[in-house]
Amino acid sequence: MFSTFGHLFRITTFGESHGGGVGVVIDGCPAGVEIDMDEVQAELTRRKPGQSILTTPRQEEDLVQVLSGMFEGKTLGTPIALLVHNKDARPSSYEKFKDVYRPSHADYTYQAKYGIRNWMGGGRASARETIGRVAGGAVAYQVMRRSFPLEVVAWVESVHQVDASGLVDTATVSREEVEQNAVRCPHPEKADQMYKAIDEARRDRDSLGGVVACVVRGAPAGLGEPVFSKLEAELGRAMMSLPAVKGFEIGSGFAGTQMRGSEHNDPFRMKAGAVGTTTNHSGGVQGGISNGEDLFFRVAFKPTATIGKVQQTVNEQGEEVELEARGRHDPCVLPRAVPIVEAMTNLVLVDALLMQQARHPNGAGASIQSEKNGSI
Amino acid sequence: MFSTFGHLFRITTFGESHGGGVGVVIDGCPAGVEIDMDEVQAELTRRKPGQSILTTPRQEEDLVQVLSGMFEGKTLGTPIALLVHNKDARPSSYEKFKDVYRPSHADYTYQAKYGIRNWMGGGRASARETIGRVAGGAVAYQVMRRSFPLEVVAWVESVHQVDASGLVDTATVSREEVEQNAVRCPHPEKADQMYKAIDEARRDRDSLGGVVACVVRGAPAGLGEPVFSKLEAELGRAMMSLPAVKGFEIGSGFAGTQMRGSEHNDPFRMKAGAVGTTTNHSGGVQGGISNGEDLFFRVAFKPTATIGKVQQTVNEQGEEVELEARGRHDPCVLPRAVPIVEAMTNLVLVDALLMQQARHPNGAGASIQSEKNGSI
Amino acid sequence: MFSTFGHLFRITTFGESHGGGVGVVIDGCPAGVEIDMDEVQAELTRRKPGQSILTTPRQEEDLVQVLSGMFEGKTLGTPIALLVHNKDARPSSYEKFKDVYRPSHADYTYQAKYGIRNWMGGGRASARETIGRVAGGAVAYQVMRRSFPLEVVAWVESVHQVDASGLVDTATVSREEVEQNAVRCPHPEKADQMYKAIDEARRDRDSLGGVVACVVRGAPAGLGEPVFSKLEAELGRAMMSLPAVKGFEIGSGFAGTQMRGSEHNDPFRMKAGAVGTTTNHSGGVQGGISNGEDLFFRVAFKPTATIGKVQQTVNEQGEEVELEARGRHDPCVLPRAVPIVEAMTNLVLVDALLMQQARHPNGAGASIQSEKNGSI
Amino acid sequence: MFSTFGHLFRITTFGESHGGGVGVVIDGCPAGVEIDMDEVQAELTRRKPGQSILTTPRQEEDLVQVLSGMFEGKTLGTPIALLVHNKDARPSSYEKFKDVYRPSHADYTYQAKYGIRNWMGGGRASARETIGRVAGGAVAYQVMRRSFPLEVVAWVESVHQVDASGLVDTATVSREEVEQNAVRCPHPEKADQMYKAIDEARRDRDSLGGVVACVVRGAPAGLGEPVFSKLEAELGRAMMSLPAVKGFEIGSGFAGTQMRGSEHNDPFRMKAGAVGTTTNHSGGVQGGISNGEDLFFRVAFKPTATIGKVQQTVNEQGEEVELEARGRHDPCVLPRAVPIVEAMTNLVLVDALLMQQARHPNGAGASIQSEKNGSI
What's the number of domains chain B is made of? Predict the structure, then answer.
C-alpha cells in the first residue's frame, strides 16, 4: 500500500529489483486509442541504466511485454498489463551486506516497517520500480496527445553546483535538445560541466544530486481539483513519491517568498483572444487549477545513497560496522530521472483531464477557454 | 472533487468563504477517544483572522459546533461533523469587482473550470476553507497523543528577506515559544524584524511571503506506504494543497542537491539501544518510511495575492481594466499558516499510523522498533 | 468508515438519530446545474416518519438547510453541504433500555465494534441516517435529468404475504401512481390489503417486511465499470447498505435460476434503429454494463426489528433479561423505503454516467448508441 | 475501471480470456506471512475448466507464477503479482461470430461502452477473469487463518429445479464434503440429481443455473464498516460483481420478508460466556457488522449464456441473424463458481479484518468480544 496512483487513469506498479519482474497495470485508459508500443519502449530505454558511464553499468534490457488490454494495436478500455522481466541478477554482490543497513537507503526503514525485506537489492525502494511508472506515463502521453497538442519536457537543470537555471528557454526547449547529451541538460556548455562533475564523483566513488526542471506547454485551463487534489498537490505528491526526491516547487517556489505581492502577482491580459498573464510566477496554476499558461516546476534529487566510499553504519544485530559497497550504481540519478519526471507528469495530467472531462463533456475546460481546449 | 483527504482517518471539508458555513466531516476516527473540544477551538482561534494588525481585521469568531459523532465527550467511531457558521459577510465590498479577475487569485481559474463562481470572496480557494482542516487536524492530534508522546511544532522560519533558518533548535522548539509573538517565529529578534517588515508592507498596501518550518518529534519508525503514499509524498501533497503554497522540501531539500553523497548520507549508529542516525539530512524519512528520527520539512508560501495597490487585469468580458482592491486581507499569511501546517501534518501522520496499525497490530512499527513504539 | 459513497459524484453522510443533526456533503457535483431545493425537500418529506398511521408517529420536520456549494440557485461545482437538524429527541424513552441489547438491532454489534455507542436511539444504524442519502439522491436526479429523459420509479411490491409482483407494468408505472396511497404500492387493491396487514401488525405490536421493486427507464447503454464496479454490483452494494435490507436481485434474480439458458437468454433485435432485446431477464445489464433496456431490480426488507412485544435478550452485563420496547417505531418500513431506494439508484446512476462521460465525452455511450444518448 | 477490489487488502485483476495472460496484483498484504503457493494453485485448479464433463473441455493448465512480493516463501508487504499465461487459444472458433452479438453475453454492451472489443472470447466478461480473484482470495485466506480459526465453505445448493436447501448442515459442512463430487453439492443424493440434470442439459445443447450457498464460521464480531461498507453490502457487491450472478441474499433473505418481526428477530442469549443469538435469521450481521454468529448467504447464478441451440440475434451491422454457437462452454457454471464465491468472501473478510484492526489494535473486535477474537 499504496502501489496505485491516479483516480480515473490509474496505475498499479509491482515488482522488486530482484524477483520475477516489474510492471504495471493501467486501469481506466480510454478505449480505442492507438498506442505505439515502440514509443513506450523508447521511454523505458531512456530510463534504463547503462546508457553512459554516468549511469550504472547494469545491462538491463527492459523489454516491455503487453499481457492484456490491447487488441490490434488499440486499447480495449480494460486493464493494460505491462511486464518487464528481471535479468542480470547478481545476489552475490549483495549477500555480503545482507544484514547491514546501508546509510540513507531504505534497508532499515523497510525492516522497521515490515519486519522482513529482500536484501538482494533495493526492493521496492529501488529505482527499478519506476519502470512501471515510465511505461504507464508513456501510454498516458499518447492518450493525451491524441486530442491535445500537449508537450511535456523535463531536463537536468543542475547537478551539484553546476546550475543551468535561467539559461534554458522554457517556451521552446524540446526533447530533442534534451537528448543531445548524456546528461540531459539542453544547455551544451553546462551539460559538459555536469558531465565532468559526475565523472569526477564517479571516479572518487562518490555521488551527486541535482534538480530536474519540467515544463508543460499546451495544457488547457481548468485542470486540477480543489481542494485536496489541486494540480500542484498532485504534481507534488507524484514527484515526492520518486526515489531520492527531497523537494518540489512550482512557479516561483521558494525564491518567490522573497518577492512582494506587487512583484509576484501575475497581471492578466488578453492574449490572442484568451485570458493570459504577462508573467508566470504562478507556474501555470492558481487556486490549484491550471490557468492555460505553461506549467513549470522543479524537483530536487539528493545525491545517490549508494557510494563506494567506506561508511559507518550498524547491522541487524545492532552492531556498529563499516560498509564498503561494491554494487553497481549511478553516481548521479539525474539523467535517468528526466523520463521518470515526465512520466509522473503525464500521469497527473491525464487523470486531471479525465476528471474534468467527466463533468464538462464539451471540452476539458468550460466555454470561456474553448479556443484553447480539445477533448480527450 | 476531491474535498476528501486521508485513507483511514478521512476528512471531507465543505464551505465557501461566503454562504452558510464551513466545516468538516471526520470519518474513520477511532472510537472511545476523549476529545477536548476546547483544544480544537483553540486551534481554530490560532488560525482565525483579526489576531493582530498583521492579519486581516475581519472579526470572525469561528466557534465550532459538534453535529455528530461524539457522545459524552468521547468519539463514537462514527462521522464527526464540525460546523463553523459564516459571519461578517460584506458582499458589497466584493460587488464592485464581481466580474474582474483578481491577479494571482483563483477567480479566473474557477471560472474556467466550473463556468460559474461565487464572486463574494474567494470561495473554496479562500483560506477560510482551511477551518475544516484545522478542526480535523486538532482531533487527529488528540487521537495520536493518546498513545504516542508525539509533538508537532511549526513556526515561521522566514518572512520575505528576514530569515531565521538555522537559528531555531528543532530538538527543543515548543508551541509555547512559537506563541510568544504575533509572528509565530520562536526567535524573538527575527520575530521582531519580521513584524516590522510585515507592518511596513501593510502600510504600503503590499504583501509578503515566507517559509514555515515544521518538526515532528516522537514519530515511530515504519510510517509511510511505498510507493505512492510515501510519507514525504503525503506530506508534500498535504502542504501543496494549502492556499498560497508554492514549494515543499523535506530534510536537506533543495540545498541537499549541493552536497556529495558522502556528506549527505546519514550514518547509522545505536542510540539508546535503538537504531538511529548521526545526522538527519533525510529529514526523518528513507524510502518513504519514517526512520524514527525527527521529521523536518519546510513549506514556501507566496506573498498574499490580495494587495491594495492598483493592478492591471481583465474582466469577464475580456476587457483590460484596473483593479484597486479594498477588501480586508492579510499582508502576510505566514503567522496564520502555522496552525494549518500543523493540522495537515497531524492528518498525514494519523492516517499513516492507522495504516501501519492495520497490518502490525502490536505497535506502529515492527518488533525491531518496539522500544520506540506505542499503539494508536 | 466508510460513510462515503460514489467515485465521482460522492456523498458523505453524517449524523446519528440523536445529536445535533444529520446531513450530507455532496462532492463532485457538476457545476452550473440549477437545483430546485423544493424537490429535494419533497423527497425528504416522502422519507420522513409520521406520514400515516403506518409509519412512526415521530414528528420530525426534516427541513433541509443548504450550507455550501450553491450560488444563486445553481451548483458551484464545490461541495454541497446539506443539514437537517435533529428535533423531538426523547432520550427518556430510551434510557430504560440503555444497557439492553435490542434483538436484531445494531446495539450489540456497535458495542462489539466500537466499545461505545450512543444508546439514545439507533445511532448510525437508524433509518434517520438515510436523510443524507435521500437529499444526495434528489440532487443527483436533477443533475441527470438535465440531460437525460431518465425515470427512476420504485414501489412496494410485497408486504409480508401480500404480493403485487407481476401486477405492476414496469413500462408505465409512475411516481404519481405510487404516491396515490400511503403504502406506495401502485396496485390499489393490493395496496389496500397491504395497508390492512400493516395496520393489523401495528395493533398487534408486531412488524412486517416486504419487497421494494424499482425500474429505471431511459438509461443509456454503456453504464457500469467492469469488473468490480459492474452496474449490478454497485446497485447491489447500494441497496444492501440500507438498514433492514437482506436481499437484492436484478432481472430474473433467484427465480431465473429455475430457467434454462435457452429460455433465459434475451434475444437481440432491432428496435427503432437501435439494438434491443425481446425479453429482459437480464434486467437491463449484461456483463455489468447497461444495455439500454429498462433496469429492473428488487430489494428485500426484513420486518422492522423494533416491536412492542416482550422479547428475550441480554444486557451489557451479560444477564439474560426481558425487553418490552415502547419506543415509537414503524410497523413496516416499506412505504418509507421507496424514496430511499430511488435515492440510492440515482446515486449509482449519476456516478456511472460521470464515469462513462470521463472517457467518452461525446455521449454516455459510444457512437453505436448515439441515438439513445444524451450527455451529462 | 474499476479492476480493483478492497481498501486495505486490495487486488487489481487484469487480463482477457485471450491475450498474454490473466493475473492479479495484491497490494496491502501484511508482511512476513508464510504463503503456501501449492494451496493457491489448488484453488486455481478447483476453478479451472475441464474438471469433468460438466464443465467446459478447454484444457487450461492455469499454472500460477509469482512475479513479485514474496521472498523465501514469505510475503514482503509489497505488491504480490501473480500471473497465469493464456493457452489453448483458438480464435478460429470465434472468428465466424466476430461481428455477432451473442444473446445475454457482454458482446453488445462492451461494444456500446468502449466502441471496441476483443471478439476472441468473452474478454474481461469471461469467467477467466476470475483467476485473479481466486488467487487473491487464496492468499487472503492464508493470511486470515494465520490468526483466526476461520472457515469459509461454499457449495452448490441448487441447480435448476434440484434444490438441496435445508438439507446441508451449515454448522458442520466442510470443504472435504463439498469436494466429494463433481457438482460440489455436499448432499450426495441431490448432487447425483444435479449431475444428471446438467448432463441432460449439456446433451440438449442447453444450460442451467442455480444457487451457491456459503457459510463463514469463526469470524469475530465487529467486522464491517457502517454505513456504506456494511459487511453485507461488501459481500453483496463482491458476489454481484461475478459473471452470471443475478441475486444475493444474506440470512433470511427474500424468504424473511414473509415473517413477522416477532418471528424474525434473533433473541440474544449468553453462549459460553459470550453474547450470541438463539436463531440466525440475520445471517451473522446486524447493522452491517458481524455479530459473531455464522455468516450465511446465497448467490444466484443464471443459466450459462453460451448454448449450442440456434438463437436469434443481431450483428454489428444491425442485421437480424441466426447464431449457432459451437464454442466450448460450461453447461452449468455452478460447480466452478464454488471456489470463486469463497475467494470473494475471503477478500471481503480480510479487508474488514484489517480495517477493524487499524482502529482496534488489540483484537479485531473491542474487549467485549475478546474471548472470540484473534488478531490478524
Answer: 1
Mean local confidence (pLDDT), D90-116: 88
pLDDT at B272: 87
Find which of A110, A113, A281 to mutate to test the B interface (most B CBs within 10 Å of its CB). A113
Residue C59 confidence (pLDDT):
62
Average pLDDT by stretches of 10, chain A with 376 residues:
92 92 97 97 92 68 94 96 84 79 95 91 90 98 92 98 98 97 97 97 96 97 96 98 98 98 97 94 98 98 95 95 80 96 98 90 40 41
Q: Which residues partner with B299 through β-bridges?
A: B212, B248
Write the residue in B358, B362, B366 that is nearest to D358 by C-beta: B358
| CB-CB neighbors (< 8 A) of D7 in chain B | 7
Give how far A288 is from chain C: nearest CA, Å.
13
A303: nearest CA partner in chain B:
B261
Q: Are C323 and C313 in contact (CB under 8 A)?
A: yes
pTM (2 decimals)? 0.96
| Amino acid of residue D77 | G
> What's the mean per-residue pLDDT of chain D?
91
Report, as an integer, the average pLDDT of D87-95: 69
Decide: helix, strand or coil at residue A25: strand
ipTM computed for the complex: 0.95
| Contacts of B318 by beta carbon, 8 Å cutoff, 6+ apart | A270, A273, A275
Residues 46-105 of D with CB under 8 A from B: 77-78
- Report chain B's mean pLDDT, rounded to a whole number: 91
* Residues D91, D18 contacting (CB under 8 angstroms): yes
User: Which member of D7, D355, D375 has the closest CB to residue B361?
Assistant: D375
Q: What is the pLDDT of residue D53?
A: 73
* Closest Cβ–Cβ partner in D1, D78, D80 for A28: D1
- Distance, in angstroms, between D366 CA and closest chain A CA? 25
Domain range for C264: 4-359
Neighboring chain C residues of D225 at a CB cutoff of 8 Å: 1-2
pLDDT recorded at residue B144: 95
Interchain CB distance below 8 Å, A113 and B224: yes
Q: Is residue C264 part of a domain?
A: yes
CATH for D10: 3.60.150.10
pLDDT tens column, A262-310: 999 999 999 989 999 999 999 999 999 999 999 999 999 999 999 999 9
Is A364 within the bounds of a domain?
no
Q: Is residue C41 part of a domain?
A: yes
Do residues B55 and B336 touch, judged by C-beta distance below 8 A? yes
Residue A171 maps to a domain: yes
The average pLDDT across D21-45 equals 97
Please identify among residues 13-42 of chain D the ones whose CB lies closer than 8 Å to any CB of chain A. 13-16, 19-23, 25, 27-28, 31-32
B174 CB-near residues (< 8 Å, 6+ apart): B151, B153, B186
**Can you list the residues of chain C whose pLDDT is less than 50?**
362-376
Closest by Cβ to D354, choosing from B28, B30, B358 = B358
Q: B367 or D288: whose pLDDT is higher?
A: D288
C-alpha to C-alpha distance for B77 and C2, rounded to whole angstroms: 11
